[in-house]
Amino acid sequence: MAGILNKLRNLDAYPKINEDFYSRTLSGGVITLLSSFVMFLLFFSELRLYLHTVTETKLIVDTSRGETLRINFDITFPALACSILSVDAMDISGELHLDVKHDIIKRRLDSNGNTIEARQDGIGATKIEKPLQKHGGRLEHNETYCGSCYGAEAEEHDCCNTCEDVREAYRKKGWGVTNPDLIDQCKREGFLQRVKDEEGEGCNIYGFLEVNKVAGNFHFAPGKSFHQSGVHVHDLLAFQKDSFNISHKINRLTYGDYFPGVVNPLDKVQWSQDTPNAMYQYFIKVVPTVYTDIRGHTIQSNQFSVTEHVKSSEAGQLQSLPGVFFFYDLSPIKVFSRYLG
């Protein structure tokens, strides 16, 4: 064993110099310290460069067809009550989604922005006791309820059992509900009373829309929407107001899932209304994006850019529908973003 160790010692190419043949100096110590520091920096610089990922970006023509686009939103209206706020979506293919309630949550806010109540829209309607039947009498024991649609029945046997049913039947006819208190269902459910009770409140509305992957728009506006002679109209008569404050804050707006590095330009954007009525318009260019991380995991999403415009009108003169409108168009170019190790 000792012989093997001696042979290893003989292989040492850098034998130690006897201390009698060198001396330690201050300048030598300073040089040693500086060189050690430089070597330390060079080591970590090279290590950081080695671990740094490189982004490879490629642009191709987007040939996808028949896909859907998911729009995630979270918007606060500090001066618009949840009871009068509706969401509509439409696209150039002619598909309409009026007064969307599915996958949408409304949170009532007090004047200080604190939450009063949060629930899915359309859930929790007041139970009607002995409502007015279609034939004119009150609901009797063991009798099936069938409420009147007040002339808006599409078929003779149609029934409108809630205020929402009546408003929907009127919407399909292209009519407006001028006085909900004259409708038994609305009166018993306290529709106008609920609107009055929520006066002065705000609303935080959040959720998502699943729309066709074509150009279109979605908007938040007061009143029940309907189409009349090919024109999109909102019924505002029931609220008996000549102005609406559409001040809003966009807490979050995304087209698709989040991926690292994405910048959503409308997040935290806030507008305060100065005129009695206003239409806020956001024109959005959506760019399909495929993100692939260093592990090969792929996320199908979108990026977007935006321009803004505001149209205002005087009180009592609704030249344009008050609301917040998002007009979006799809870019024909798809971006592939891939991270390389």
Question: What does the average pLDDT come to?
Answer: 81
Nearest-angstrom radius of gyration?
Answer: 33 Å
What is the approximate shape? elongated
* Number of E-state strands: 16
Model regions low in confidence, pLDDT < 50 over at least 5 residues: 123-127
The number of helical elements comes to: 5
List SSEs in N-to-C order: HHEEEEEEHHHEEEEEEEEEE
β-strand percent reads: 35-45%
Subunit organisation of the chains = single chain
Instruction: Kindly name the structural category.
Output: alpha+beta
Approximately how much helix is present in the residues? 10-25%
Domain Endoplasmic reticulum vesicle transporter N-terminal: 8-97
Protein name: Endoplasmic reticulum-Golgi intermediate compartment protein 3 isoform X3
Domain Endoplasmic reticulum vesicle transporter C-terminal: 149-337
Transmembrane segments: 21-44
Quick recap:
The protein has five helices and 16 strands. By secondary structure, it is of the alpha+beta class. Strands 1, 3, 4, 8, 13, 14, 15 and 16 form an eight-stranded mixed beta sheet that branches.
Overview of the structural elements:
It is found in: Membrane. The chain crosses the membrane at residues 21-44. The protein is of the alpha+beta class and 341 residues long. It contains 5 helices and 16 strands. It has helices spanning 2-10, 26-51, 163-173, 184-189, 191-197, and strands at 54-61, 68-77, 85-91, 96-97, 104-109, 115-120, 202-212, 216-222, 224-228, 231-235, 248-255, 269-271, 277-292, 298-313, 323-330, 333-340. The longest helix has 26 residues, at 26-51.
